[in-house]
Amino acid sequence: MEQAHQLVFIGSLLLLAGIVAGVLSSRVGAPLLLAFLALGMVAGVDGLGLHFTSTGSAYLIGSAALAIILFDGGLHTRRRVFKLALGPSVVLASVGVAITATIAGCAAVFLLHLGWTEGLLIGAIVSSTDAAAVFLLLHQRGREISQRVAATLETEAGFNDPFAVFLTTTLVTFASGHDGEPFAALMLHLAREAVLGAAIGIAGGMVLVQLVNRLTLAGGLQPILAMAAALCLFAGTQLIEGSGFLAVYLAGLIAGNSRLKSSQTILRFHEGMAWLSQLVLFIMLGLLVVPHHLLPQAPAALGVALVLILVARPLAVWICLTPFRFSVQERLFVAWVGLRGAVPIFLAMIPTLARLPHSETYFHVAFLVVLASLVLQGWTVAPAARWLRLEMPRDKHHGHRLDLEIAAAGSREISAYRVPLGAPALDRSFEQLPLPRRTRLIAVLRDGVVMNRAQLDRLQPNDVVLALTPPETTEVLDRMFAERAGPLADSVLGDFVLDPAVPMATFVDLYGLPATLGDRAKPVGTFLRQRIGRRPVIGDRVHLGLVDLIVRELDGDRITEIGVVLEPERDPLDGVSIRRRLKRLAGGARRAIRRRGVPVASRRPPSGDGA
Fold first, then answer.
1. CA distances in angstroms from 566 to 72, 74, 112, 550, 563, listed in the order given
2. Among 24, 109, 401, 565, which one is least packed by beta carbons within 10 Å?
Protein backbone atom coordinates (compact mmCIF):
# COMPACT_ATOMS: atom_id res chain seq x y z
CA MET A 1 0.00 0.00 0.00
CA GLU A 2 2.81 2.40 0.86
CA GLN A 3 4.49 1.66 -2.49
CA ALA A 4 1.27 2.53 -4.33
CA HIS A 5 1.11 5.87 -2.54
CA GLN A 6 4.74 6.52 -3.42
CA LEU A 7 4.05 5.84 -7.10
CA VAL A 8 1.05 8.20 -7.10
CA PHE A 9 3.11 10.87 -5.33
CA ILE A 10 6.08 10.57 -7.71
CA GLY A 11 3.86 10.48 -10.81
CA SER A 12 1.85 13.56 -9.83
CA LEU A 13 5.03 15.38 -8.77
CA LEU A 14 6.58 14.71 -12.19
CA LEU A 15 3.47 16.05 -13.93
CA LEU A 16 3.52 19.22 -11.81
CA ALA A 17 7.24 19.64 -12.46
CA GLY A 18 6.62 19.16 -16.19
CA ILE A 19 4.00 21.92 -16.26
CA VAL A 20 6.30 24.30 -14.35
CA ALA A 21 9.21 23.38 -16.63
CA GLY A 22 6.99 24.14 -19.62
CA VAL A 23 6.20 27.61 -18.29
CA LEU A 24 9.88 28.32 -17.63
CA SER A 25 10.93 27.01 -21.05
CA SER A 26 8.41 29.34 -22.72
CA ARG A 27 10.00 32.33 -21.02
CA VAL A 28 13.52 31.46 -22.22
CA GLY A 29 12.33 30.37 -25.67
CA ALA A 30 13.26 26.69 -25.29
CA PRO A 31 11.12 24.05 -27.05
CA LEU A 32 8.45 22.80 -24.66
CA LEU A 33 8.84 19.12 -25.54
CA LEU A 34 12.58 19.37 -24.91
CA ALA A 35 11.80 20.54 -21.38
CA PHE A 36 9.55 17.49 -20.81
CA LEU A 37 12.23 15.15 -22.17
CA ALA A 38 14.97 16.77 -20.08
CA LEU A 39 12.82 16.48 -16.96
CA GLY A 40 12.50 12.72 -17.48
CA MET A 41 16.26 12.39 -17.93
CA VAL A 42 16.95 14.44 -14.79
CA ALA A 43 14.56 12.25 -12.79
CA GLY A 44 16.01 9.02 -14.26
CA VAL A 45 18.90 6.72 -13.41
CA ASP A 46 21.70 9.26 -13.96
CA GLY A 47 19.78 12.00 -12.16
CA LEU A 48 17.52 11.54 -9.15
CA GLY A 49 17.76 7.77 -9.49
CA LEU A 50 14.26 6.73 -10.58
CA HIS A 51 14.45 3.32 -12.31
CA PHE A 52 12.09 2.67 -15.20
CA THR A 53 13.30 -0.08 -17.52
CA SER A 54 10.11 -1.80 -18.72
CA THR A 55 10.02 -1.44 -22.49
CA GLY A 56 6.73 -3.35 -22.61
CA SER A 57 5.02 -0.89 -20.25
CA ALA A 58 6.51 2.03 -22.14
CA TYR A 59 5.19 0.64 -25.44
CA LEU A 60 1.71 0.19 -23.94
CA ILE A 61 1.62 3.72 -22.51
CA GLY A 62 3.12 5.14 -25.70
CA SER A 63 0.51 3.41 -27.90
CA ALA A 64 -2.39 4.81 -25.88
CA ALA A 65 -0.81 8.29 -25.70
CA LEU A 66 -0.19 8.47 -29.46
CA ALA A 67 -3.73 7.27 -30.19
CA ILE A 68 -5.16 10.07 -28.02
CA ILE A 69 -2.86 12.66 -29.64
CA LEU A 70 -3.85 11.57 -33.16
CA PHE A 71 -7.56 11.50 -32.26
CA ASP A 72 -7.32 15.04 -30.90
CA GLY A 73 -5.48 16.09 -34.07
CA GLY A 74 -8.35 14.73 -36.17
CA LEU A 75 -10.96 16.44 -33.98
CA HIS A 76 -9.33 19.84 -34.51
CA THR A 77 -8.72 19.46 -38.26
CA ARG A 78 -11.36 21.23 -40.31
CA ARG A 79 -12.66 19.45 -43.43
CA ARG A 80 -11.70 22.42 -45.62
CA VAL A 81 -8.11 22.28 -44.32
CA PHE A 82 -8.00 18.50 -44.84
CA LYS A 83 -9.11 18.82 -48.48
CA LEU A 84 -6.61 21.61 -49.07
CA ALA A 85 -3.65 19.44 -48.02
CA LEU A 86 -4.82 15.91 -48.86
CA GLY A 87 -2.81 15.42 -52.07
CA PRO A 88 0.60 16.74 -50.94
CA SER A 89 0.21 15.17 -47.49
CA VAL A 90 -0.44 11.67 -48.83
CA VAL A 91 2.56 11.92 -51.17
CA LEU A 92 4.80 13.22 -48.35
CA ALA A 93 3.55 10.50 -45.99
CA SER A 94 4.32 7.69 -48.45
CA VAL A 95 6.93 8.62 -51.07
CA GLY A 96 8.47 11.23 -48.78
CA VAL A 97 8.82 8.82 -45.86
CA ALA A 98 10.37 6.18 -48.17
CA ILE A 99 12.94 8.67 -49.54
CA THR A 100 13.74 9.99 -46.06
CA ALA A 101 14.13 6.49 -44.61
CA THR A 102 16.37 5.36 -47.47
CA ILE A 103 18.79 8.32 -47.29
CA ALA A 104 18.93 8.32 -43.48
CA GLY A 105 19.36 4.53 -43.54
CA CYS A 106 22.32 4.77 -45.92
CA ALA A 107 23.94 7.31 -43.58
CA ALA A 108 23.37 4.95 -40.63
CA VAL A 109 25.02 2.05 -42.51
CA PHE A 110 28.27 3.97 -43.01
CA LEU A 111 28.34 5.96 -39.77
CA LEU A 112 27.34 3.13 -37.41
CA HIS A 113 28.99 0.28 -39.38
CA LEU A 114 25.76 -1.73 -39.61
CA GLY A 115 24.37 -4.05 -42.25
CA TRP A 116 21.96 -2.70 -44.85
CA THR A 117 18.86 -4.12 -43.16
CA GLU A 118 19.88 -2.71 -39.77
CA GLY A 119 20.80 0.68 -41.23
CA LEU A 120 17.56 0.98 -43.19
CA LEU A 121 15.68 0.00 -40.02
CA ILE A 122 17.16 3.06 -38.29
CA GLY A 123 16.11 5.15 -41.29
CA ALA A 124 12.54 3.85 -41.03
CA ILE A 125 12.43 4.52 -37.28
CA VAL A 126 13.43 8.20 -37.63
CA SER A 127 11.44 8.90 -40.83
CA SER A 128 8.19 10.04 -39.19
CA THR A 129 7.53 13.72 -38.39
CA ASP A 130 5.55 15.24 -35.54
CA ALA A 131 3.42 18.21 -36.66
CA ALA A 132 1.91 18.50 -33.17
CA ALA A 133 5.38 19.45 -31.95
CA VAL A 134 5.68 22.11 -34.68
CA PHE A 135 2.38 23.79 -33.79
CA LEU A 136 3.16 23.51 -30.10
CA LEU A 137 6.39 25.45 -30.68
CA LEU A 138 4.70 28.07 -32.87
CA HIS A 139 1.79 28.61 -30.48
CA GLN A 140 4.27 28.75 -27.61
CA ARG A 141 5.71 31.87 -29.32
CA GLY A 142 2.26 33.21 -30.26
CA ARG A 143 2.77 32.59 -33.98
CA GLU A 144 0.70 31.19 -36.84
CA ILE A 145 1.93 30.11 -40.27
CA SER A 146 0.44 30.05 -43.76
CA GLN A 147 -2.67 27.88 -43.79
CA ARG A 148 -1.51 25.78 -46.75
CA VAL A 149 1.79 24.97 -45.03
CA ALA A 150 0.13 24.36 -41.66
CA ALA A 151 -2.49 22.06 -43.22
CA THR A 152 0.19 20.09 -45.09
CA LEU A 153 2.33 19.58 -41.99
CA GLU A 154 -0.64 18.62 -39.83
CA THR A 155 -2.22 16.21 -42.29
CA GLU A 156 1.15 14.69 -43.21
CA ALA A 157 1.75 13.84 -39.55
CA GLY A 158 -1.65 12.14 -39.37
CA PHE A 159 -0.78 9.96 -42.37
CA ASN A 160 2.95 9.29 -42.10
CA ASP A 161 2.90 7.42 -38.78
CA PRO A 162 1.15 4.36 -40.31
CA PHE A 163 3.67 4.18 -43.16
CA ALA A 164 6.63 4.55 -40.78
CA VAL A 165 5.16 1.78 -38.58
CA PHE A 166 4.80 -0.46 -41.63
CA LEU A 167 8.40 0.15 -42.75
CA THR A 168 9.70 -0.47 -39.24
CA THR A 169 7.78 -3.71 -38.65
CA THR A 170 8.71 -5.00 -42.13
CA LEU A 171 12.41 -4.36 -41.57
CA VAL A 172 12.20 -5.88 -38.07
CA THR A 173 10.82 -9.01 -39.76
CA PHE A 174 13.76 -9.03 -42.20
CA ALA A 175 16.27 -8.47 -39.41
CA SER A 176 14.75 -11.40 -37.48
CA GLY A 177 15.58 -13.71 -40.39
CA HIS A 178 12.00 -14.05 -41.71
CA ASP A 179 12.65 -12.42 -45.07
CA GLY A 180 11.03 -14.90 -47.40
CA GLU A 181 7.96 -12.78 -48.13
CA PRO A 182 8.06 -11.38 -51.70
CA PHE A 183 7.87 -7.65 -52.40
CA ALA A 184 4.39 -7.93 -53.96
CA ALA A 185 3.08 -9.57 -50.78
CA LEU A 186 4.55 -6.74 -48.68
CA MET A 187 2.85 -4.11 -50.84
CA LEU A 188 -0.41 -6.04 -50.56
CA HIS A 189 -0.03 -6.08 -46.78
CA LEU A 190 0.60 -2.31 -46.75
CA ALA A 191 -2.48 -1.72 -48.93
CA ARG A 192 -4.53 -3.95 -46.62
CA GLU A 193 -3.38 -1.99 -43.56
CA ALA A 194 -4.25 1.32 -45.20
CA VAL A 195 -7.65 0.19 -46.52
CA LEU A 196 -8.66 -1.41 -43.23
CA GLY A 197 -7.47 1.61 -41.25
CA ALA A 198 -9.32 4.05 -43.52
CA ALA A 199 -12.54 2.02 -43.65
CA ILE A 200 -12.69 1.34 -39.91
CA GLY A 201 -11.74 4.93 -39.10
CA ILE A 202 -14.45 6.46 -41.30
CA ALA A 203 -17.14 3.96 -40.21
CA GLY A 204 -16.07 4.22 -36.57
CA GLY A 205 -16.21 8.02 -36.69
CA MET A 206 -19.78 7.89 -38.02
CA VAL A 207 -20.81 5.40 -35.32
CA LEU A 208 -19.17 7.58 -32.66
CA VAL A 209 -21.19 10.61 -33.82
CA GLN A 210 -24.42 8.60 -33.52
CA LEU A 211 -23.47 7.31 -30.06
CA VAL A 212 -22.70 10.78 -28.72
CA ASN A 213 -25.85 12.32 -30.20
CA ARG A 214 -28.32 9.55 -29.33
CA LEU A 215 -27.20 8.33 -25.88
CA THR A 216 -28.50 10.33 -22.94
CA LEU A 217 -25.50 10.65 -20.63
CA ALA A 218 -24.33 12.84 -17.81
CA GLY A 219 -22.44 15.82 -19.28
CA GLY A 220 -19.06 14.61 -18.04
CA LEU A 221 -19.41 11.18 -19.66
CA GLN A 222 -19.68 12.30 -23.28
CA PRO A 223 -15.98 13.18 -23.75
CA ILE A 224 -15.02 9.96 -21.93
CA LEU A 225 -17.28 8.02 -24.31
CA ALA A 226 -15.48 9.62 -27.26
CA MET A 227 -12.03 8.79 -25.84
CA ALA A 228 -12.99 5.19 -25.03
CA ALA A 229 -14.38 4.73 -28.55
CA ALA A 230 -11.18 6.16 -30.06
CA LEU A 231 -8.95 3.79 -28.07
CA CYS A 232 -11.25 0.87 -28.93
CA LEU A 233 -11.01 1.72 -32.64
CA PHE A 234 -7.22 2.02 -32.44
CA ALA A 235 -6.65 -1.28 -30.63
CA GLY A 236 -9.32 -3.20 -32.56
CA THR A 237 -7.88 -2.12 -35.92
CA GLN A 238 -4.38 -3.11 -34.80
CA LEU A 239 -5.65 -6.54 -33.72
CA ILE A 240 -6.95 -7.32 -37.22
CA GLU A 241 -3.69 -6.04 -38.77
CA GLY A 242 -5.03 -2.70 -39.97
CA SER A 243 -3.48 0.68 -39.28
CA GLY A 244 -4.86 1.77 -35.92
CA PHE A 245 -3.06 5.12 -36.16
CA LEU A 246 -4.80 5.96 -39.44
CA ALA A 247 -8.15 4.71 -38.11
CA VAL A 248 -8.10 6.83 -34.96
CA TYR A 249 -7.02 9.97 -36.88
CA LEU A 250 -9.81 9.60 -39.46
CA ALA A 251 -12.37 8.85 -36.73
CA GLY A 252 -11.41 12.11 -35.04
CA LEU A 253 -11.65 13.92 -38.38
CA ILE A 254 -15.18 12.59 -39.03
CA ALA A 255 -16.35 13.36 -35.48
CA GLY A 256 -14.76 16.82 -35.40
CA ASN A 257 -16.51 17.86 -38.62
CA SER A 258 -19.94 16.52 -37.61
CA ARG A 259 -22.62 18.02 -35.42
CA LEU A 260 -22.00 16.68 -31.90
CA LYS A 261 -23.80 17.24 -28.64
CA SER A 262 -21.49 18.99 -26.17
CA SER A 263 -18.95 19.52 -28.95
CA GLN A 264 -17.09 22.28 -27.09
CA THR A 265 -16.83 20.11 -23.97
CA ILE A 266 -15.52 17.17 -26.01
CA LEU A 267 -12.97 19.34 -27.84
CA ARG A 268 -11.67 20.96 -24.66
CA PHE A 269 -11.46 17.62 -22.83
CA HIS A 270 -9.45 15.99 -25.62
CA GLU A 271 -7.19 19.01 -25.96
CA GLY A 272 -6.35 18.58 -22.29
CA MET A 273 -5.89 14.82 -22.73
CA ALA A 274 -3.56 15.43 -25.69
CA TRP A 275 -1.46 17.75 -23.52
CA LEU A 276 -1.39 15.14 -20.75
CA SER A 277 -0.40 12.45 -23.27
CA GLN A 278 2.47 14.58 -24.62
CA LEU A 279 3.66 15.29 -21.09
CA VAL A 280 3.48 11.67 -19.92
CA LEU A 281 5.01 10.34 -23.13
CA PHE A 282 8.09 12.58 -23.13
CA ILE A 283 8.74 12.31 -19.40
CA MET A 284 8.44 8.50 -19.67
CA LEU A 285 10.84 8.39 -22.63
CA GLY A 286 13.29 10.55 -20.69
CA LEU A 287 13.07 8.11 -17.75
CA LEU A 288 13.61 5.13 -20.04
CA VAL A 289 16.96 6.33 -21.40
CA VAL A 290 20.26 6.05 -19.53
CA PRO A 291 22.20 9.19 -20.52
CA HIS A 292 25.73 7.81 -20.00
CA HIS A 293 24.90 4.94 -22.40
CA LEU A 294 24.25 7.52 -25.14
CA LEU A 295 27.74 9.01 -25.18
CA PRO A 296 29.58 6.29 -27.20
CA GLN A 297 27.08 6.57 -30.06
CA ALA A 298 26.56 10.32 -29.90
CA PRO A 299 28.94 11.35 -32.76
CA ALA A 300 27.53 8.81 -35.24
CA ALA A 301 23.93 9.54 -34.18
CA LEU A 302 24.55 13.27 -34.63
CA GLY A 303 25.82 12.53 -38.14
CA VAL A 304 22.60 10.61 -38.93
CA ALA A 305 20.56 13.52 -37.53
CA LEU A 306 22.39 16.05 -39.71
CA VAL A 307 21.94 13.93 -42.84
CA LEU A 308 18.25 13.55 -41.97
CA ILE A 309 17.70 17.27 -41.34
CA LEU A 310 19.92 18.76 -44.05
CA VAL A 311 19.71 16.18 -46.87
CA ALA A 312 17.00 13.51 -46.54
CA ARG A 313 14.03 15.63 -45.50
CA PRO A 314 14.74 18.57 -47.88
CA LEU A 315 15.23 16.23 -50.86
CA ALA A 316 12.02 14.31 -50.06
CA VAL A 317 10.03 17.54 -49.68
CA TRP A 318 11.41 19.03 -52.90
CA ILE A 319 10.52 15.91 -54.90
CA CYS A 320 7.06 15.46 -53.35
CA LEU A 321 5.82 19.07 -53.29
CA THR A 322 7.09 20.35 -56.64
CA PRO A 323 4.10 18.93 -58.60
CA PHE A 324 1.69 20.74 -56.23
CA ARG A 325 3.02 24.23 -57.07
CA PHE A 326 4.28 25.08 -53.59
CA SER A 327 6.48 28.16 -53.58
CA VAL A 328 10.19 27.90 -52.80
CA GLN A 329 9.61 29.51 -49.39
CA GLU A 330 6.86 27.01 -48.55
CA ARG A 331 8.98 24.03 -49.56
CA LEU A 332 11.96 25.30 -47.58
CA PHE A 333 9.84 25.72 -44.46
CA VAL A 334 8.18 22.29 -44.75
CA ALA A 335 11.64 20.79 -45.28
CA TRP A 336 13.15 22.54 -42.26
CA VAL A 337 10.36 21.84 -39.78
CA GLY A 338 10.16 18.10 -40.32
CA LEU A 339 10.47 17.93 -36.55
CA ARG A 340 10.97 14.55 -34.89
CA GLY A 341 8.93 13.95 -31.76
CA ALA A 342 7.92 10.93 -29.70
CA VAL A 343 7.10 8.61 -32.62
CA PRO A 344 10.72 7.67 -33.55
CA ILE A 345 11.54 6.80 -29.94
CA PHE A 346 8.29 4.83 -29.73
CA LEU A 347 9.14 2.92 -32.94
CA ALA A 348 12.63 2.20 -31.59
CA MET A 349 11.01 0.04 -28.89
CA ILE A 350 9.77 -2.45 -31.52
CA PRO A 351 13.26 -3.99 -32.16
CA THR A 352 13.73 -4.30 -28.38
CA LEU A 353 10.41 -6.12 -27.99
CA ALA A 354 11.41 -8.37 -30.93
CA ARG A 355 14.73 -9.09 -29.14
CA LEU A 356 16.83 -8.06 -32.13
CA PRO A 357 20.61 -7.66 -31.92
CA HIS A 358 21.71 -4.00 -31.62
CA SER A 359 18.30 -3.10 -30.13
CA GLU A 360 19.97 -0.63 -27.74
CA THR A 361 21.64 1.04 -30.72
CA TYR A 362 18.29 1.62 -32.41
CA PHE A 363 16.83 3.18 -29.26
CA HIS A 364 19.85 5.36 -28.51
CA VAL A 365 20.18 6.64 -32.07
CA ALA A 366 16.45 7.43 -32.28
CA PHE A 367 16.61 9.25 -28.94
CA LEU A 368 19.63 11.32 -29.99
CA VAL A 369 18.08 12.16 -33.38
CA VAL A 370 14.92 13.43 -31.65
CA LEU A 371 17.06 15.39 -29.18
CA ALA A 372 19.06 16.98 -32.01
CA SER A 373 15.88 17.78 -33.94
CA LEU A 374 14.25 19.47 -30.95
CA VAL A 375 17.37 21.52 -30.23
CA LEU A 376 18.35 22.47 -33.80
CA GLN A 377 14.94 22.75 -35.47
CA GLY A 378 12.76 23.38 -32.42
CA TRP A 379 14.58 26.58 -31.49
CA THR A 380 14.37 27.93 -35.05
CA VAL A 381 10.77 27.20 -36.15
CA ALA A 382 9.42 30.68 -35.41
CA PRO A 383 12.45 32.58 -36.86
CA ALA A 384 12.28 30.42 -40.01
CA ALA A 385 8.59 31.26 -40.52
CA ARG A 386 9.33 34.95 -40.08
CA TRP A 387 12.40 34.92 -42.37
CA LEU A 388 10.54 33.09 -45.14
CA ARG A 389 7.55 35.49 -44.80
CA LEU A 390 5.15 32.67 -43.92
CA GLU A 391 4.19 34.14 -40.55
CA MET A 392 0.50 34.97 -40.20
CA PRO A 393 -1.44 36.85 -37.51
CA ARG A 394 -3.09 34.70 -34.88
CA ASP A 395 -6.40 33.28 -36.11
CA LYS A 396 -9.09 35.33 -34.37
CA HIS A 397 -11.94 34.00 -36.47
CA HIS A 398 -13.15 31.73 -33.70
CA GLY A 399 -14.77 33.83 -31.03
CA HIS A 400 -15.24 32.85 -27.43
CA ARG A 401 -18.20 30.58 -28.15
CA LEU A 402 -20.02 28.24 -25.77
CA ASP A 403 -22.64 25.90 -27.26
CA LEU A 404 -25.76 25.29 -25.17
CA GLU A 405 -27.73 22.11 -25.77
CA ILE A 406 -31.37 22.19 -26.82
CA ALA A 407 -33.49 19.42 -28.33
CA ALA A 408 -31.14 16.90 -29.99
CA ALA A 409 -33.27 16.67 -33.12
CA GLY A 410 -33.55 20.44 -33.59
CA SER A 411 -32.13 22.09 -36.68
CA ARG A 412 -30.73 25.04 -34.70
CA GLU A 413 -28.62 25.41 -31.58
CA ILE A 414 -27.93 28.13 -29.03
CA SER A 415 -24.44 29.63 -28.96
CA ALA A 416 -23.24 32.12 -26.36
CA TYR A 417 -20.52 34.70 -27.12
CA ARG A 418 -18.68 37.19 -24.95
CA VAL A 419 -18.01 40.18 -27.22
CA PRO A 420 -14.29 41.11 -27.14
CA LEU A 421 -12.84 44.58 -27.61
CA GLY A 422 -12.58 45.43 -31.32
CA ALA A 423 -14.99 42.74 -32.54
CA PRO A 424 -16.59 43.50 -35.96
CA ALA A 425 -20.03 43.36 -34.30
CA LEU A 426 -19.17 46.60 -32.46
CA ASP A 427 -18.85 48.53 -35.73
CA ARG A 428 -22.61 48.53 -36.51
CA SER A 429 -25.82 49.29 -34.69
CA PHE A 430 -27.69 46.35 -33.23
CA GLU A 431 -30.38 46.46 -35.91
CA GLN A 432 -27.82 46.48 -38.75
CA LEU A 433 -25.79 43.45 -37.67
CA PRO A 434 -25.29 41.18 -40.76
CA LEU A 435 -26.75 37.99 -39.27
CA PRO A 436 -26.67 34.74 -41.25
CA ARG A 437 -29.84 33.17 -42.59
CA ARG A 438 -32.20 31.69 -39.94
CA THR A 439 -30.15 33.26 -37.13
CA ARG A 440 -31.70 35.26 -34.30
CA LEU A 441 -30.12 37.01 -31.32
CA ILE A 442 -32.40 36.02 -28.46
CA ALA A 443 -30.76 37.86 -25.55
CA VAL A 444 -27.97 40.29 -24.67
CA LEU A 445 -26.60 40.34 -21.11
CA ARG A 446 -24.69 43.40 -19.86
CA ASP A 447 -23.20 43.33 -16.36
CA GLY A 448 -25.40 40.36 -15.56
CA VAL A 449 -28.63 42.12 -16.61
CA VAL A 450 -30.76 41.12 -19.63
CA MET A 451 -31.00 44.17 -21.89
CA ASN A 452 -34.32 45.45 -23.21
CA ARG A 453 -34.28 44.91 -26.98
CA ALA A 454 -36.07 48.22 -27.65
CA GLN A 455 -33.46 50.20 -25.68
CA LEU A 456 -30.43 48.41 -27.17
CA ASP A 457 -28.61 50.63 -29.68
CA ARG A 458 -25.17 48.99 -29.94
CA LEU A 459 -23.31 46.09 -28.40
CA GLN A 460 -20.50 46.90 -26.00
CA PRO A 461 -17.29 45.01 -25.10
CA ASN A 462 -17.88 42.18 -22.59
CA ASP A 463 -21.57 41.88 -23.50
CA VAL A 464 -22.76 38.25 -23.56
CA VAL A 465 -24.86 37.45 -26.64
CA LEU A 466 -27.12 34.39 -26.99
CA ALA A 467 -27.74 33.41 -30.62
CA LEU A 468 -30.13 30.79 -32.04
CA THR A 469 -28.51 29.60 -35.27
CA PRO A 470 -28.15 26.59 -37.60
CA PRO A 471 -24.88 24.69 -37.02
CA GLU A 472 -23.61 25.43 -40.53
CA THR A 473 -23.58 29.21 -39.92
CA THR A 474 -21.67 29.27 -36.62
CA GLU A 475 -18.40 30.17 -38.37
CA VAL A 476 -19.99 33.41 -39.62
CA LEU A 477 -20.96 34.33 -36.05
CA ASP A 478 -17.49 33.30 -34.85
CA ARG A 479 -15.97 35.94 -37.13
CA MET A 480 -18.52 38.58 -36.10
CA PHE A 481 -17.81 38.11 -32.37
CA ALA A 482 -14.05 37.54 -32.65
CA GLU A 483 -11.10 39.74 -31.78
CA ARG A 484 -9.39 41.60 -34.57
CA ALA A 485 -6.12 40.12 -35.76
CA GLY A 486 -4.11 43.01 -34.30
CA PRO A 487 -1.11 45.01 -35.55
CA LEU A 488 0.68 41.98 -37.01
CA ALA A 489 -2.13 41.61 -39.56
CA ASP A 490 -1.47 45.13 -40.80
CA SER A 491 2.25 44.45 -41.25
CA VAL A 492 1.89 40.94 -42.70
CA LEU A 493 -1.33 41.25 -44.71
CA GLY A 494 -0.79 44.64 -46.31
CA ASP A 495 -0.55 48.38 -45.67
CA PHE A 496 -4.15 48.92 -46.79
CA VAL A 497 -7.15 46.95 -48.08
CA LEU A 498 -8.16 46.82 -51.75
CA ASP A 499 -11.59 45.79 -53.05
CA PRO A 500 -11.16 42.71 -55.33
CA ALA A 501 -13.74 44.17 -57.73
CA VAL A 502 -11.53 47.18 -58.61
CA PRO A 503 -10.41 46.98 -62.29
CA MET A 504 -6.74 46.18 -62.78
CA ALA A 505 -6.46 49.11 -65.23
CA THR A 506 -7.43 51.59 -62.48
CA PHE A 507 -5.05 50.04 -59.97
CA VAL A 508 -1.98 49.75 -62.21
CA ASP A 509 -2.43 53.23 -63.66
CA LEU A 510 -2.63 54.72 -60.18
CA TYR A 511 0.69 53.20 -59.08
CA GLY A 512 2.45 52.95 -62.45
CA LEU A 513 2.61 49.13 -62.43
CA PRO A 514 3.24 46.79 -65.37
CA ALA A 515 0.28 44.82 -66.76
CA THR A 516 -0.65 43.21 -70.07
CA LEU A 517 -3.73 44.28 -72.01
CA GLY A 518 -5.46 41.06 -71.01
CA ASP A 519 -4.72 41.62 -67.32
CA ARG A 520 -5.88 45.26 -67.44
CA ALA A 521 -9.38 44.11 -68.41
CA LYS A 522 -9.75 41.91 -65.30
CA PRO A 523 -10.79 42.77 -61.73
CA VAL A 524 -7.87 42.69 -59.28
CA GLY A 525 -9.37 39.67 -57.48
CA THR A 526 -9.53 37.64 -60.69
CA PHE A 527 -5.96 38.63 -61.61
CA LEU A 528 -4.67 37.60 -58.17
CA ARG A 529 -6.52 34.29 -58.22
CA GLN A 530 -5.13 33.42 -61.68
CA ARG A 531 -1.58 34.41 -60.77
CA ILE A 532 -1.69 32.24 -57.64
CA GLY A 533 -2.71 29.33 -59.89
CA ARG A 534 -4.14 27.15 -57.11
CA ARG A 535 -6.76 27.24 -54.39
CA PRO A 536 -6.01 30.50 -52.53
CA VAL A 537 -5.41 30.76 -48.79
CA ILE A 538 -4.95 33.80 -46.57
CA GLY A 539 -1.39 35.06 -46.95
CA ASP A 540 -0.85 34.02 -50.59
CA ARG A 541 1.29 36.74 -52.17
CA VAL A 542 1.94 37.93 -55.75
CA HIS A 543 4.69 40.43 -56.60
CA LEU A 544 3.71 43.07 -59.18
CA GLY A 545 6.24 45.76 -60.02
CA LEU A 546 6.89 47.78 -56.87
CA VAL A 547 3.98 46.34 -54.81
CA ASP A 548 2.84 43.01 -53.38
CA LEU A 549 -0.77 41.83 -53.53
CA ILE A 550 -1.79 39.56 -50.63
CA VAL A 551 -4.93 37.50 -50.02
CA ARG A 552 -6.33 39.03 -46.84
CA GLU A 553 -9.84 37.54 -46.50
CA LEU A 554 -11.70 34.64 -48.12
CA ASP A 555 -15.31 33.50 -48.35
CA GLY A 556 -14.88 29.86 -49.28
CA ASP A 557 -12.61 30.05 -52.33
CA ARG A 558 -13.64 33.60 -53.25
CA ILE A 559 -11.19 36.40 -52.42
CA THR A 560 -13.09 39.12 -50.53
CA GLU A 561 -10.21 41.36 -49.34
CA ILE A 562 -6.79 42.06 -50.85
CA GLY A 563 -3.92 43.60 -48.92
CA VAL A 564 -1.48 45.89 -50.73
CA VAL A 565 2.15 46.33 -49.61
CA LEU A 566 3.56 49.47 -51.23
CA GLU A 567 7.21 48.92 -50.30
CA PRO A 568 7.64 45.16 -49.82
CA GLU A 569 10.74 43.85 -48.12
CA ARG A 570 13.27 42.12 -50.30
CA ASP A 571 12.53 38.46 -50.90
CA PRO A 572 14.80 36.50 -48.51
CA LEU A 573 15.71 34.10 -51.32
CA ASP A 574 16.77 36.78 -53.80
CA GLY A 575 20.36 36.45 -52.72
CA VAL A 576 20.39 32.66 -52.97
CA SER A 577 18.62 32.20 -56.30
CA ILE A 578 20.10 29.13 -57.94
CA ARG A 579 19.20 30.39 -61.40
CA ARG A 580 20.89 33.74 -60.75
CA ARG A 581 23.97 32.01 -59.35
CA LEU A 582 24.23 29.78 -62.42
CA LYS A 583 23.91 32.79 -64.74
CA ARG A 584 26.66 34.59 -62.87
CA LEU A 585 28.93 31.54 -63.02
CA ALA A 586 28.25 31.10 -66.74
CA GLY A 587 28.93 34.78 -67.39
CA GLY A 588 32.17 34.65 -65.44
CA ALA A 589 33.30 31.57 -67.35
CA ARG A 590 32.55 33.25 -70.70
CA ARG A 591 34.51 36.37 -69.74
CA ALA A 592 37.47 34.27 -68.62
CA ILE A 593 37.45 32.39 -71.94
CA ARG A 594 37.35 35.63 -73.91
CA ARG A 595 40.33 37.02 -71.96
CA ARG A 596 42.36 33.96 -72.91
CA GLY A 597 41.46 34.40 -76.57
CA VAL A 598 39.63 31.09 -76.87
CA PRO A 599 36.62 31.23 -79.26
CA VAL A 600 33.28 30.84 -77.51
CA ALA A 601 30.92 28.30 -79.00
CA SER A 602 27.96 30.66 -78.94
CA ARG A 603 29.86 33.38 -80.90
CA ARG A 604 30.55 33.17 -84.63
CA PRO A 605 34.34 33.00 -85.30
CA PRO A 606 35.76 35.92 -87.27
CA SER A 607 35.94 35.50 -91.05
CA GLY A 608 39.14 35.65 -93.00
CA ASP A 609 42.53 34.02 -92.73
CA GLY A 610 43.81 35.93 -89.70
CA ALA A 611 46.28 34.04 -87.59
1. 41, 40, 54, 11, 10
2. 24
